[in-house]
Amino acid sequence: MRPSLTSLAIIVLVVNFSLAQQPPFEFGKINPEEIHLAEFQAKYPDETAAVIGDMATCRFEVDSRTGYFNYLIDRTIRYIILSPEGLGYGDFPIPFYQTRNEKEEISGLRGNVYNLEGGKIQRERIRNRDGLVNDLGNNWKEMVIPIAGVKTGSVIELQYTLKSPYLHVLPNWKFQREIPVMHSEFKLRLPSLYIYRVRYRGGIQNLTIEQETPIIETMRIPKPNAGYGGSIGNDFFTVNVHGTEFLWVAKDLPALRPEPYTSNIRNYQAAMDFELITQQFPESPPRHYSNSWESVREFLFGNKDFGGFLNESADAMFHATGIKATDDLSKDMESAIHEIQKRIRWNNKNSLFAENTPAEVLQRGSGNSAEVNLMLCGLLRNMGYKAETVVLSTVGNGDLLYDTPTISKLNYIIVAVERAPNEYMVLDATESLWPPGFLPSRLLNGKGKFLSAEAMKWMDLESPRPMKTKKSYKLSLDAEGNLNGNLQYEYFGYSKFSVLKGIEENLPNNVVEALEKKFGVDKTEIAVTNKDLSEAPITISAFIHFSNFAQFIGNEIILPSLLFETREDHPFSLEERKYPVHFIAPLSEEIIFEIQLPEGFKISHLPKEYRIRARGGLMYEYQPNFTDNTILIRAFQEATQTKVEPENYSHLKSFHDRIVRAHGEKIIISIN
Question: What whole-number percentage of the chain has pLDDT above 90?
Fold first, then answer.
């Protein structure tokens, strides 16, 4: 039930006070000094656009039709286009949420485009107020407002109001964006309604609370005998509701720049999130949502689209499959996943909740991630296994704070099956080609919360095997400098299933496609074996030919120290990192070359053997040898840690710098 009125408001936050400041601009008014392109370009020489000001007020009101509270966001934004590459900001997106029963509404849209021509400001009103609606998935939509007359130097401003019935989560406010932000502020007029948790993320340095002010608002409230919601006619009375107004302001925020091997850049975006902890109806006990993990569990297990769906799914799957357990746990897990995937196709939507009943899901033959995995959990329980749910946030959804109970930040369920007392194996049935115990990389996001009636605990979401690769080349060099021979790539552990998925689903830049591009090998001449879900590595073999690969200088041939696996650069070129480096799993790569030389060719220089080590479990070794007119080279690299904090980034960068420098050495062959 949605609340209509309560009597308590607390916001969990330590505040700093300072004097309120004037807004950075006034909507509908601008002077030539505020549109001076050269000044903005001098301040932001490498940027395509910049936000001059982004301001919003969140307020609450009672819907006179239903008696329910809604929140409303009144937003005003102004930004400038700094280069032709920034013209894409002429389309302004407004996200909104919509379910089968309710939706958020956008109203009051108006705006202007200002251009400076001949020293005079030309204004063009934004007239297209309907926009184009895109489906973003998971009940999220996006209304895109196309704006005409936009060019380099244009200043664009918009105003609109978003009305929402979804009070459990207030909209998160993003102070920082992919372009610089000069001024951003969020005002919250919170009536005496709820306890909300406030969460900062992104390490905001330029954020202060400008004001915290007691307020009293006059509201028309449904009379107690009118009930809450439904048809209430004119049964209202007017009441003064106490509350608090909060104001947060951030200034001069740099553009949010993604860096290589960053899990999700939004984890580090300067922003503020709000989540409902407790609500209280008049003359009723408080209702708790996420003030503790116990309350989260109680809410989820009591929800018809989580606990209710799970309870129904066991019978539904039993009647659909009739599958029974055997004495082989691994085979039973594979059989259960196969039965689910045979009947239900994942619709690529991540969700914490089911949208349909188990019977409807089976009838449709498709479902969201919650429906797929709750059905799997129910099936395993019906087979006699102890199967429980693990709730989590996917990589794309962002990190969880493990000391902060939450519902709104969860967007996925997987299954944990007990294989020994208090020892569990994780399962996900949304994608094929992943065996029991392995999760797709989009789910490897720290920890998930194990929830059962008896226990709750954090479970590590990580690969049970490292990403291990072995590349072997058996080649011969002829007198013209051509290389011919065979290659064999072996992928073990997590690498195997990542590679297998890429090949079977023909994903861009999969291993076979990469071999075609690198070596010019015809796809039909590449052999792939062990494409099952066993522990045996997937193996890729091919014959390769390189014309004129070697460099001739006089009567000498020059080869790179690791031939076509030689590194000339690496992805960690930044001098400093703002964000941690993330790897999917521990890494291990071995490269072996065996190069047969023609008669009369001799080695005049072979690089020395070396080993490079660095903090964080980083190691690289290079072992060359020459025997029986054959060059033998073994290179091995491993990284045992999956996360490198910014303060340790210099060690990672130095490690790869040293490898690149070492690879600069040459193999020199003399021709007699």
Answer: 65
Which residue from 498, 580, 573, 640 is spatially nearest to 261, judged by alpha carbons? 580
Residue 520: the pLDDT is: 84
Q: What global pTM score does this model have? A: 0.86
Backbone φ and ψ of 378, nearest 5°: -65, -40
In sequence order, which residues have a C-beta less than 8 Å from that of residue 70 and are 6 or more positions away?
60, 61, 62, 63, 163, 164, 165, 167
Q: What is the dihedral of CA 80, 85, 88, 94, to 10 degrees?
A: -60
Task: Take residue 583 and report the two structure tokens written for it.
Answer: 């790897």
Residue 634: burial class (beta carbons within 10 Å; 0-12, 13-18, 19+): middle
Mean pLDDT computed over every residue of the chain = 89
Of 303-312, 437-446, 506-515, 528-537, the range with the lowest mean pLDDT is: 506-515
Query: Which residue spans within 13-131 are E strands per DSSP?
Result: 49-62, 69-81, 91-97, 105-117, 120-125
> Could you tell me whether strands 345-346 and 366-367 are parallel, antiparallel, or unpaired per DSSP bridges?
parallel
Domains and CATH numbers, the chain: 10-83+151-288 (2.60.40), 294-461 (3.10.620), 467-671 (2.60.120.1130)
Contact 153, 98 (CB under 8 A): no
Q: From CA 49, how far away is CA 86, in angstroms rounded?
A: 6
- The secondary element (H helix, E strand) that includes residue 516 is helix 511-519
Question: For the residues 635-659, what does the mean pLDDT come to?
Answer: 96
User: Cα separation of 581 and 649, whole Å?
Assistant: 8
Which residue would you say has higher pLDDT here, 22 or 527?
527
Confidence of residue 18 (pLDDT cuts 50, 70, 90): very low
Give 527's contacts (C-beta < 8 A, 6+ positions apart).
539, 540, 541, 542
- Cβ-contact 587, 639 below 8 angstroms: yes
- Measure the N-to-C terminal CA separation of the chain; round to a whole number of Å: 90
Question: Distance between CA 666 and CA 556 in Å, rounded?
Answer: 12
Residue 591 token pair: 């490269």
The angle formed by the CA atoms of residues 298, 310 and 355, to the nearest 5 degrees, is: 95
664 HSE (CA, 13 A, CB side): 8
Which value, to the nearest 10 degrees, does the dihedral of the CA atoms of residues 394, 398, 400, 406 take?
-80
Placement of tokens 């789910």 in the chain: 443
8 Å CB contact between 581 and 573: no
CA distances from 48 to 81, 116, 178, 324, 334 (A): 6, 18, 10, 61, 51
- pLDDT tens for 126-177 read 876 667 898 876 778 899 999 989 999 999 999 999 999 998 888 889 999 9
